[in-house]
């Protein structure tokens, strides 16, 4: 008898959790974000998410009149989590690339900034096959920058990290010779901070069309064409009504939307 | 023929087998790094644990307390935290980066992992061995005393050999735990078996191909390790096995039932 009750209780609990798991209603837009990529997304001490990506996500949701549910996800599991329906779109500075397009669909770009190397001031690092040979170049695993380095400079020794913040940490204490990332992320996340004061950009803008693509877009599952079209409309709308520019001005001193 | 097989696998396999096959050499190198880290840390940790276990099973409070603190610290905190503290934590201190141990050792991820793993396994093995030493049959010790063996001779000839034998089955668990624990290395940029799996996932934006390949290789290694220990046990613990089916010695605890 007691056993039956116990089983009934467990069953009820399971059902509760099952419903709690599906708590997001159809109208909610579940957005996958990273939270470890300042100034695009980072986490405050109290756990709230902040940054350009986060505000753009909120603006897009407002435009679509849907409630935003931000879902944090580690970078290297981002696309798998989208495909596993943990969220409906990724707004996390994800570059639109051919390789990624094999698995997901993208909205139009919502910003485009160049990639750059960062090294110690006066290190004299030459960005060439000979100059990078055997140099330890740190970067975030699973990014377009990994694609770029492996395609153009396989002579360099790649050091792969889970987050961009860890790359900066190891660059600051000299475990790697240079790092390669988005220029804005490097500028605001590192160069403008105290830890980055002895470092500088080296070698100018780097771009490889196949690896880097046209810029950062919002990823959706391939079947979700309606959502993709909605997102495109929303990006156009916030560009047109000044919301984008307002958010942009909070973080950057020039328009990062690109040409 | 070969091409049609590849085309068939490409179209029908749920896993991107072609990609795994193309990068299989990297997985083998990764397995080598995993084995290297595991074996060296087990040897170093094992050697450390012998004197520490002798101290722990003795009754000198001045020696016992620090060893207890060491084993409590390393068994009471996760291996990931220990590794992070050694890799990212120590690097934050300017004075540590000035010391001679920084450049060849602490600046290298491989050494940081080795130090963390060695200390961790030393702590577990110490307590394991202490248990075996303390449960040495009193009669054996008394017999050794009666034969006039001194304290160190008793330890060397009677207690330790017996303790090693009895600790062996439990130690095989520690070896497998350490093997699995070594995946922590991949979080501090080391390209171990899991690191290669994550590299593959990151490079081609995959969900599980890298993980599954790594998992299968871990399974194979574990199979070999447990087989190896089975052989070792059948050699070292032969005297504890029943001689034949008729003359089965009663197990501990079973005796009381017979009487």
Helix-strand layout with pairing:
The complex is a heterodimer of chains A (259) and B (259).
Chain A: H1 2-21, E1 29-33, E2 36-37, E3 41-43, E4 49-50, H2 52-64, E5 68-72, H3 78-83, E6 89-95, H4 98-101, E7 105-111, E8 115-120, H5 129-132, E9 136-140, H6 144-152, E10 157-161, H7 164-172, E11 178-182, H8 183-191, E12 199-206, H9 209-212, E13 216-220, H10 225-240, H11 243-251
Parallel strand pairs in A: 1-5, 1-6, 9-10, 9-11
Antiparallel strand pairs in A: 2-3, 3-4, 6-13, 7-13, 8-11, 8-12
Helix pairs in contact in A: 2-10, 2-11
Chain B: H1 2-12, H2 17-22, H3 24-57, H4 61-76, H5 79-89, H6 94-98, H7 102-106, H8 109-134, H9 138-146, H10 151-181, H11 193-204, H12 209-236, H13 254-258
Name some characteristics of this structure.
heterodimer, A: alpha/beta, D-Maltodextrin-Binding Protein, domain 2, five-stranded mixed sheet, 13 strands, B: 259 residues, mainly alpha, MetI-like fold, disordered C terminus
What does this structure look like?
The complex is a heterodimer of chains A (259) and B (259). Chain A has 259 residues and is an alpha/beta fold. Chain A has helices at residues 2-21, 52-64, 78-83, 98-101, 129-132, 144-152, 164-172, 183-191, 209-212, 225-240, 243-251, and strands at residues 29-33, 36-37, 41-43, 49-50, 68-72, 89-95, 105-111, 115-120, 136-140, 157-161, 178-182, 199-206, 216-220. Chain A folds into 2 domains: 25-112 and 214-251, D-Maltodextrin-Binding Protein, domain 2, CATH 3.40.190.10; 115-212, 3-Layer(aba) Sandwich (D-Maltodextrin-Binding Protein, domain 2), CATH 3.40.190.10. In chain A, 40% of the residues lie in helices and 25% in strands. In chain A, the strands form 3 sheets. In chain A, strands 5-1-6-13-7 form a 5-stranded mixed β-sheet. The termini of chain A are far apart. Residues 19-26 of chain A have low confidence and may be disordered. Chain B is mainly alpha-helical and 259 residues long. Helix content of chain B is 77%, strand content 0%. Chain B contains 13 helices and no strands. Chain B has helices at 2-12, 17-22, 24-57, 61-76, 79-89, 94-98, 102-106, 109-134, 138-146, 151-181, 193-204, 209-236, 254-258. The longest helix of chain B has 34 residues, at 24-57. Classes of the chains: A alpha/beta (259), B mainly alpha (259).
């Amino acid at each position: 008898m007691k056993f039956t009750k116990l089983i009934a209780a467990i069953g009820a609990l399971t059902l509760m959790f099952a419903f709690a798991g599906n708590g997001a209603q159809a109208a909610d837009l579940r957005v996958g974000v990273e939270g470890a990529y300042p100034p695009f997304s980072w986490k405050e001490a109290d756990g709230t998410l902040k940054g350009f990506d986060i505000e753009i996500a909120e603006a897009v949701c407002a435009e679509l009149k849907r409630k935003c549910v931000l879902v944090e996800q580690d970078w290297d599991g981002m696309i798998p989590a989208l495909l596993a329906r943990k969220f409906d779109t990724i707004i996390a500075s994800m570059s639109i690339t051919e390789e990624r397009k094999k698995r997901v669909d993208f909205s139009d770009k919502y910003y485009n900034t160049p990639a750059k190397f960062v090294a110690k001031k006066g290190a004299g690092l030459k960005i060439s096959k000979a100059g990078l040979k055997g140099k330890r170049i740190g970067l975030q695993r699973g990014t377009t920058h990994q694609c770029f380095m492996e395609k153009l400079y396989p002579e360099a020794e790649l050091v792969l990290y889970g987050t961009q913040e860890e790359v900066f940490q190891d660059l600051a204490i000299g475990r790697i010779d240079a790092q390669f990332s988005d220029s804005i992320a490097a500028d605001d996340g590192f160069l403008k901070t105290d830890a980055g004061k002895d470092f500088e950009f080296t070698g100018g803008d780097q771009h490889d069309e196949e690896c880097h693509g046209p810029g950062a877009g919002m990823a959706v599952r391939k079947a979700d064409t309606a959502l993709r079209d909605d997102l495109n409309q929303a990006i156009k709308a916030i560009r047109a009504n000044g919301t984008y520019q307002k958010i942009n001005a909070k973080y950057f001193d020039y328009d990062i939307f690109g040409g | 023929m070969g091409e049609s097989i590849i085309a068939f696998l490409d179209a029908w396999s749920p896993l991107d087998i072609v990609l795994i096959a193309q990068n299989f050499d990297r997985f083998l190198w990764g397995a080598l790094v995993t084995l290297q880290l595991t074996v060296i840390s087990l040897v170093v940790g094992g050697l450390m644990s012998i004197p520490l276990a002798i101290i722990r099973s003795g009754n000198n409070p001045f020696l016992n307390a620090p060893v207890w603190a060491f084993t409590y610290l390393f068994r009471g905190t996760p291996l990931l935290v220990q590794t992070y503290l050694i890799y990212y934590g120590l690097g934050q201190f300017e004075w540590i980066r000035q010391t001679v141990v920084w450049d060849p050792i602490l600046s290298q991820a491989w050494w940081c992992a080795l130090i963390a793993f060695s200390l961790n396994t030393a702590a577990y093995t110490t307590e394991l061995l202490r248990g075996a030493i303390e449960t040495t049959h009193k009669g054996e010790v008394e017999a050794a005393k009666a034969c006039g063996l001194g304290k160190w001779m008793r330890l060397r000839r009677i207690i330790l050999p017996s303790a090693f034998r009895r600790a062996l089955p439990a130690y095989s668990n520690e070896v497998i735990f350490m093997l699995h624990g070594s995946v922590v290395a991949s979080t501090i940029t080391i390209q171990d078996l899991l690191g290669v799996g994550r590299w593959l996932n990151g490079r081609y934006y995959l969900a599980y191909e890298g993980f599954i390949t790594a998992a299968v290789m871990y399974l194979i290694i574990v199979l070999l390790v447990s087989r190896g220990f089975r052989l070792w046990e059948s050699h070292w613990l032969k005297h504890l096995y029943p001689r034949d089916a008729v003359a089965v010695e009663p197990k501990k605890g079973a005796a009381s039932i017979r009487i």
